Amino acid sequence: MATTRQLKVGRQLQKDLGEIIQRQGMAAYGGAMLTVMGVEVSPDLSYAKVVLSIFPAGKRAAVQAALNAKRLRAELGRRVKDQLRIVPELAFSIDTSLDYVERIEALLKEVNVGSSEE
Predict the structure, then answer these.
(1) Distance between CA 72 and CA 56 in Å, rounded?
(2) CATH number of the domain that 81 lies in?
(3) Structural domain harbouring 57
């Protein structure tokens, strides 16, 4: 279970990374929209798992190629240098819940089309 400090640092990192990515703009990521869904920080605050949501899902490979963890960590370090002694190493994970939602919607459309034909 995460401590209060881990949760607070995770929320601050999520906010700061979101602002950094927003400032870079969609063009930096091949026209895809990125959302920082959450940040999980290790107990010693040296590692952070960043969960990203990418829209549209078809641009996932291009975004992963464009993500530069070192550059983002350096920019993050400039923002949190007064709050954290160590800037955590960033590991990115992609949230696939949008894929799941799209799949369910497609299946529901197929069911609705099939029932209206009868």
Answers:
(1) 22
(2) 3.30.300.20
(3) 4-117
Which token pair is 91?
């590991």
3-state secondary structure 42-85: CCCCCEEEEEEEEECHHHHHHHHHHCCHHHHHHHHHHHHCCCCC
pLDDT per residue as tens digits for the range 16-67: 999 999 999 888 888 899 999 999 999 999 999 999 999 888 888 889 888 9
CB atoms within 10 A of CB 44: 9
Domain count for the chain: 1
* 75-118: pLDDT as tens digits: 999 999 999 999 999 999 999 888 888 889 989 988 887 666 65
Question: Nearest Cα to 41, choosing from 68, 7, 75, 18?
Answer: 7
Three-state DSSP class for residue 92: strand
